[in-house]
């Protein structure tokens, strides 16, 4: 194993092995035990745990009414809690603390949000279960609220595969501009907004492909947009990996504490975006292509006949 790979592996392993290693910033085992490395930001904790409570209560109520596994299927429940767990790992665990000190860990956190948690939550389609957590008299008004606020038309546009793909791409590239990224490192509010935009744009992207018009058209368009997304995210990863200069000196300033040079930290972060995340998008694209071939849309069938 190369020295950079070994160093980052050790750094990430220490998050889950209390007392196993120390860095100049303090003993990670002590930080784990005292909770100092866990996120306490209420802007993160309240939405995360609020969504969990709503989904849990709604699922229990729905299954009591319709029968176990009906209304919300078991695989949807599994997808939601898997996605929620990944979100909690990325946003609450010491991975977030480490991400403020190591660029590679920060990139892992972002990819967990966009490439793992977001599609799992979209597959779960948790909105129906969450509605059942509300009092019966509230459900109708809540469903009609977007239309009353004039948001239905906007959603019909941004949920189109092309629009959702562009929004997700803009969010990704804009936050990785050096000047904007540096703001994230000094402003907790900017850091929170970065995570919100990454997660929300990823949810819109995956919804448009897995639940929206692309699904009704037979997943052919979903394959194309996933392939394009894998290309542009891979390009950003390649640029980070091969660049001979530092893009974010402030982000990589503490790399030496983990046995890396600042440039090695940036290169590993680029590899995370380029290879593992690219594999997720490519695998999803191939799965959707298989579904498209196996279950063509009515329009495609009519052309074939």
Low-confidence runs: 4-8, 10-26, 298-305
End-to-end gap: 55 Å
- The helix content, as a percent range, equals over 70%
Order of helices and strands: HEEHHHHHHHHHHHHHHHH
Question: Would you report the number of β strands?
Answer: 2
Assembly annotation: single chain
Strand content: under 5%
In DSSP terms (H or I, runs of 4 or more residues), the helix count works out at: 17
The value of Rg in angstroms is: 21 Å
Shape: globular
Name the average pLDDT: 83
Note the main sheet: 2 strands, antiparallel
**Going across the major beta sheet, what is the strand order?**
1-2
> Structural class, from helix and strand content?
mainly alpha
Question: How would you describe this structure in keywords?
Answer:
2 strands; 305 residues; two-stranded antiparallel sheet; disordered C terminus; mainly alpha
Describe the structure.
With 305 residues, the chain is an all-alpha fold. It is 75% helix and 1% strand. The protein contains 17 helices and 2 strands. It has a two-stranded antiparallel ribbon. Strand 1 (22-23) and strand 2 (26-27) form a beta hairpin. Helix 6 packs across helix 12, helix 10 packs antiparallel against helix 12 (188-210) and helix 15 (262-274) packs parallel to helix 16 (276-294). The longest helix is centred in the N-terminal third of the chain and has 25 residues, at 42-66. 35% of the residues are buried.
What secondary-structure arrangement, pairings included, does this model have?
Elements: H1 3-13, E1 22-23, E2 26-27, H2 28-34, H3 42-66, H4 74-91, H5 94-99, H6 103-124, H7 127-132, H8 136-148, H9 152-158, H10 161-175, H11 178-186, H12 188-210, H13 213-216, H14 220-242, H15 262-274, H16 276-294, H17 298-304
Antiparallel strand pairs: 1-2
Helix pairs in contact: 3-4, 4-6, 6-12, 6-15, 10-12, 10-14, 11-12, 14-15, 14-16, 15-16
